[in-house]
Amino acid sequence: MSTQKKRVLFVCIGNACRSQMAEAFARRYGDDVLIAASAGLAPASAVAPDTLRAMGDKNIDLRDHFPKGVRQLGRARFDLVINMSGVSIPEDLAAHEDEWDVPDPVFMKYPAHCEVRDQIERLVMNLILQLRKEQRAPEFRGQGSHLPKP
Fold it and tell me: Domain limits of the chain?
C-alpha cells in the first residue's frame, strides 16, 4: 500500500476564513493521507474573529494561525490546489486544481459563518476519503480492478 501523502493547498481570497478552516480540518482528520497548507490571493491582516469562534466550537484552536499569501509559499510544490476564491489562481502553483464553490463568510453573521464552516468540513472529509481510497487502490490492481491508475 502506498503511504505517500499528498501535499494539498487550500486557497481563498484573504486566508482569513475558508482556507484556514479547510487547512485545520484537513490537519485534524486527514494527516494520514495529506499534508495541508493554506494561503490567500490577497491576505488579510488576521484570521476573522468569527472563524476563530466557529472553529473553537469544533474544538479546533486557530488563535496562533495567521493569513499568508500565495507568494509567501516560495518554491513549495503541491499535488492538489483547492481553490475557494472564485477567481483564477496563479499558474505558477503548478498543481492539479479543484474548485470548491464556497461562499466567503467574512462579512456574514455568525450562524451563516457556521454553515460555511460545516460545508467546508464536509468537503474536506470527502477529499480525505477520496485520498484514502486512492492510497488503497494499488492493492487491488491486477485482480480485475477497473480503478484508474493514480
Answer: 6-136
